[in-house]
Design a protein that fits this description.
With about 80 residues, the protein is mostly helical. It has one domain (about 15-84). It is built from 3 helices and no strands. The radius of gyration is 16 Å and the shape is elongated. Belongs to the complex I NDUFB7 subunit family.
């Protein structure tokens, strides 16, 4: 999704698109926009895991980048609290 030197910029799915795709509320996170095409691919290919590898990789990379960005933010917050 994003090179390692750039900050992670998530793109959540819009409300109308998420509702139309019947995306559960728990999955409407920063990477929800990428989950919609993955679920469409899964449905069209009857959940054949090897047919949606590209979509799954992009979605999982987004989830990973989001996790790393949250952990960096937490570490920064902890350093600030420790120095204060």
């Amino acid at each position: 999704m994003s090179p390692s030197n750039e900050p992670f910029t998530p793109q959540p799915a819009d409300q109308a698109g998420a509702k139309e795709a019947r995306l559960p509320l728990g999955w409407r996170d920063a990477c929800g926009k990428l989950l919609i095409p993955l679920n469409v691919c899964r449905h069209e290919n009857l959940y054949a895991t090897w047919k949606c590898d590209d979509e799954r990789h992009v979605y999982e990379k987004c989830q990973y980048d989001d996790y790393i960005s949250r952990m960096k933010g937490l570490a920064k917050k902890q350093r600030a609290e420790a120095s204060a």
